C-alpha cells in the first residue's frame, strides 16, 4: 500500500525519483474503498493447479479481491471434472453483463497451433473485445500474452529453434513504470514455450513498450502505453516443482527435452530445484493489482465504458 503524507512534503519528490509510491493526504481522503473485482480466464487444462498459483500470487497484497473464475464454454475440459467447473467456474455468458477492475488471462498448451485453429479462439477474442469496455486493466500470461498481443496489436508469434525451458535472468529496459517498483536491476523468471514474439515488431509499435527481456528469452514483459494491457511471456507464478513436472512429463513422452536451464543445482535433476523467482512473482502481481488497477480503476465500475469512449476520442494521448 502507498505511504500517506502531507501534501507537498519535500520527501515526496525524492521518493518518487526512487520509484516509491507516496500518496498525499488530499488524494487519500478523496479515495473511496471497495473490494477489487478480478476475472481469471483460466485456459489451462489443470485448472486447480493454475488457479492455486494465481491466487497465491495475488494474496500478498492487503487489498481485498473478489475473484471470479471463468472457463471457455466452447471447449469441454478433459482434465477438470464437470461438477468442479459447475461449482466454481462461470462461463462468459454468465458474466458478460458485469464489470471488472482487472482480468488475468492464463497460458494454454496450444502454442504451436495457429491462433485461429484453437477451438475456443472465437470465444476468447470475444472476451478480449468485451474487456475493452468491461475491464480496466488486463494481465496476460505466456500463450495468453501472445494471444492478446496478436489480437489487439497484430503481432504474431514465431516458432523458436528449440524449446525455451528453464529459469532465465532478465534485464529491465525501463525502470520508470511502476510495474517494476521493488525489483532488482535484473530478475529471474521461468519460461516454458516453443514460440516467441518479435522484439523489433514490439519496439516498432507506437502503442507498446518493451519493458524487460534478455538475449535468451527474448521479450519478457510488454505493456500498452495506456496500461490497459500487460503482457508477461514467462511464468513468475510457477511453483518450485512446476518445471520439474513438465520435464518428467516430456521425458515420459519421449520428447527428448533438455534439462531445464538454471533450475537444478549443477543441472542435476536429482537435486532440489532452486527458487529464484518468488519475490518477482509477488512484486509483479501486487504492483499490477495496486498501481494499474486499484489506484486507477473507477469506484463505479460501469464508468469503464465512459473511460473507453474518452480514450478513443483522444487516441494517442497516452500518459
TrEMBL record:
Keywords: Acyltransferase, Amino-acid biosynthesis, Cytoplasm, Methionine biosynthesis, Transferase. Substrate binds at residues 163, 192, 249. The record marks 192 as: Important for substrate specificity. Pfam families: HTS. GO terms for molecular function: homoserine O-succinyltransferase activity. It is found in: Cytoplasm. Its EC number is 2.3.1.31. InterPro entries: Class_I_gatase-like (IPR029062), HST_MetA (IPR005697), MetA_family (IPR033752). The record marks 111 as: Important for acyl-CoA specificity. It is an enzyme of class 2 (transferase). The active site is at 142 (acyl-thioester intermediate), 235 (proton acceptor), 237. Pathway: Amino-acid biosynthesis; L-methionine biosynthesis via de novo pathway; O-acetyl-L-homoserine from L-homoserine: step 1/1. It comes from the Bacteria. It catalyses: L-homoserine + acetyl-CoA = O-acetyl-L-homoserine + CoA. Its main location: cytoplasm. Transfers an acetyl group from acetyl-CoA to L-homoserine, forming acetyl-L-homoserine. Belongs to the MetA family. This is Homoserine O-acetyltransferase. It comes from Veillonella absiana. The gene is metA.
